[in-house]
């Protein structure tokens, strides 16, 4: 655990010495501010954060590959992976440390939006439950996205290739629930089950579904596990 | 402390090292000497646990580097050839990171970081971003991270490459002092360096070990003799003939240098024929301009061994 935290801490520091974290966080807040403002003003205004949650999940889909692309690709490019893999660390500690660092950034981004609900409570009377589950849901979505990005970053020494391929995987999975419209013969429920966007809806409406929780956790676990295996395979190449 | 047996590594179809076998005793400084592409880095990477061999085994401090990789890695300090460091960290935070992942905690960690900064003469640079350091100072940081957890075994891949002569001398002294209480393997293609720093040398060429011995034994055993070189004025044939008659002379060769000729006499090991030869030449009335012994340097041996390999191939 100490090793994992040491790596997470080191990565976090790197995020803030490069402009990456600042840029990603600013862009996220800017676009979300826009959607939040749009959702609470005008004639269809409602006292909920749904109008901000759905766009936010999609913005995360675009931004997390940028957060994660560096994590392992750069180590491979710069050769620093040689010292990382010869240090007395388990591959799991390396991957989890890097995962936690990105999750912390996403967490911080979301924390900075907490004043939206504060505004809602100030001016209106929102239902608190969907707000709580909404934030939980979007954090889970972020964690799933990060695990995919970490996996693709483990496969290549090229950051751009890592970012594009994780974006591709995420977008495909995000939209895959639309597949039954043109792929016949496979029960549509399967596509719904695979797609992270479908499971997110429940959270946004205040439903805490154990199945969705398990879905996101296993989604992250599968990709984190693949990243660990990919690191192991590097060791044995 | 280190036991390497029949280590073989293929990169795809390419055979990088073949049946490399050697041992290193506790507290020994071993030099790994070989030309470019000999397989030094490959061997060291396997020892450090970066990649597995295709076949063969390696044990460090009793732990197999493949089967018990984590335990072996805990006991190794490694500096790769390219000294890959995180260039956006300061020296101190970098060492702090390495100390942490190598198991040091709390007060002991801080104490050890200060110690290592001192040992590697980085004291004035603890606050500098590594990316702004010169090559020589990065090399020091590379050594510092390797020794921070006081490993039993130190593996240094070309620790003096690319640094200025003054720092080379300092680095060699540092390695020697580090080698007093731990086992060190270092690679190099600089022969005098290995001669100076190491207690034992392995010469490797095209992936195979061609010689293992103490530097001084290598000179004696491989050549089997010492040479005397002299400059003499006189008739070549007669000089050669009478030199050959001397007891202890194995071979005589010559080359002409203007009106004098330079003769090289191979003597059997341990014999010192300087006085006898001088006597002989002066006695016969030839002009002895100059006479000196010439010991075969590690460089001669190195060249001879690696050339031999090539002509055999
Ligand atoms: N990752 C790799 N993939 C393919 N071939 C490799 C790889 N690493 C090394 N080689 C090849 O293996 C051989 C031995 O390389 P190695 O780096 O071990 O030599 P070296 O003795 O360290 O040389 P140098 O003195 O130049 O550092 C070389 O021919 C090299 O091209
Ligand atoms: Mg090398």
Description:
The complex is a heterodimer of chains A (237) and B (313). Chain A has helices at residues 2-17, 20-40, 50-68, 70-78, 81-86, 91-111, 115-123, 128-155, 159-175, 188-194, 196-204, 210-235. Chain A has 237 residues and is mainly alpha-helical. Chain A has one domain (2-234). The longest helix of chain A has 28 residues, at 128-155. Chain A starts with a helix and ends with a helix. The mean pLDDT of chain A is 89. Chain B folds into 2 domains: 2-220, P-loop containing nucleotide triphosphate hydrolases (Rossmann fold); 224-295, Alpha-Beta Plaits (2-Layer Sandwich). In chain B, 38% of the residues lie in helices and 30% in strands. Chain B contains 11 helices and 14 strands. Chain B has helices at 40-48, 69-74, 91-101, 106-119, 135-147, 165-178, 191-197, 215-223, 236-245, 274-283, 298-312, and strands at 2-11, 14-24, 29-33, 55-60, 63-64, 76-79, 153-156, 183-188, 200-205, 208-213, 226-233, 249-257, 260-267, 287-294. In chain B, helix 3 crosses helix 4 (106-119). Chain B is elongated. The two termini of chain B are 34 Å apart. Chains A and B meet through helix 1 and helix 5 of A and helix 2 and helix 3 of B.
Give a quick set of tags describing it.
heterodimer; A: 237 residues; mainly alpha; 12 helices; globular; B: 313 residues; alpha/beta; Rossmann fold; Alpha-Beta Plaits; six-stranded mixed β-sheet; four-stranded antiparallel β-sheet; 14 strands; 38% helix; disordered C terminus; binds adenosine-5'-triphosphate; binds magnesium ion
């Amino acid at each position: 655990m100490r090793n994992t935290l040491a790596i997470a801490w080191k990565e976090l520091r790197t995020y803030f010495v490069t402009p990456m974290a600042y840029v990603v966080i600013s862009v996220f807040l800017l676009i979300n501010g826009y959607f939040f403002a749009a959702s609470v003003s005008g004639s269809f205004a409602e006292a909920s954060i749904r109008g901000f949650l759905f766009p936010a999940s999609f913005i995360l889909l675009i931004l997390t590959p940028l957060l994660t692309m560096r994590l392992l690709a750069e180590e491979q490019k710069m050769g620093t992976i040689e010292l990382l893999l010869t240090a007395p660390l388990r591959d799991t500690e390396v991957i989890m440390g890097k995962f936690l660092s990105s999750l912390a950034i996403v967490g911080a981004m979301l924390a900075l939006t907490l004043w939206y609900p504060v505004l809602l409570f100030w001016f209106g009377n929102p239902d608190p439950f969907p707000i709580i589950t909404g934030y939980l849901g979007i954090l889970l979505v972020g964690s799933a996205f990060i695990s995919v990005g970490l996996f693709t970053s483990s496969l290549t020494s090229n950051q751009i290739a890592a970012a594009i391929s994780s974006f591709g995987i995420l977008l495909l999975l995000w939209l895959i629930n639309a597949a039954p419209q043109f792929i016949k013969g496979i029960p549509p429920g399967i596509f719904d089950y695979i797609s992270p966007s479908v499971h997110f809806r429940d959270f946004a409406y205040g439903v805490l579904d154990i199945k969705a929780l398990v879905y996101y956790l296993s989604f992250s676990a599968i990709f984190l596990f693949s990243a660990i295996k990919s690191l192991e395979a590097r060791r044995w190449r | 402390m280190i036991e390497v047996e029949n280590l073989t590594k293929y990169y795809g179809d390419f055979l990088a090292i073949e049946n490399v076998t050697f041992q290193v005793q506790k507290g020994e400084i071993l030099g790994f000497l070989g030309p470019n592409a000999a397989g030094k880095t490959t061997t060291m990477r396997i020892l450090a646990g970066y990649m597995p061999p295709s076949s063969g085994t390696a044990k460090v401090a009793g732990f197999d580097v493949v089967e018990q990789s984590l335990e072996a890695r805990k006991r190794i300090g490694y500096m790769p050839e390219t000294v890959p460091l995180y260039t956006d960290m300061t020296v101190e935070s970098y060492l702090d990171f390495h100390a942490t992942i190598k198991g040091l905690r709390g007060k002991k960690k801080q104490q050890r970081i200060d110690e290592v900064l001192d040992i590697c003469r980085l004291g004035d640079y603890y606050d500098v971003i590594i990316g702004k350091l010169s090559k020589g100072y990065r090399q020091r940081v590379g050594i510092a991270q390797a020794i921070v957890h006081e490993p039993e075994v130190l593996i240094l891949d070309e620790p003096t490459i690319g640094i200025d002569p003054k720092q080379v001398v300092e680095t060699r002294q540092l390695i020697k002092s580090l080698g007093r209480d731990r086992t060190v393997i270092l690679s190099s293609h600089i022969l005098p360096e290995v001669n100076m720093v190491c207690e034992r040398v392995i010469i490797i060429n095209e992936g195979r070990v061609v010689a293992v011995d103490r530097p001084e034994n290598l000179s004696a055993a491989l050549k089997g003799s010492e040479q005397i070189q002299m400059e003499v004025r006189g008739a070549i044939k007669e000089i050669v003939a009478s030199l050959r008659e001397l007891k202890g002379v194995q071979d005589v060769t010559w080359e002409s240098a203007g009106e004098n000729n330079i003769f090289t006499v191979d003597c059997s090991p341990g014999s010192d024929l300087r006085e006898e030869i001088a006597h002989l030449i002066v006695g016969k009335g030839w002009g002895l301009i100059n006479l000196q012994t010439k010991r075969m340097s590690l460089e001669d041996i190195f060249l001879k061994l690696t050339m031999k390999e090539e002509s055999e191939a």
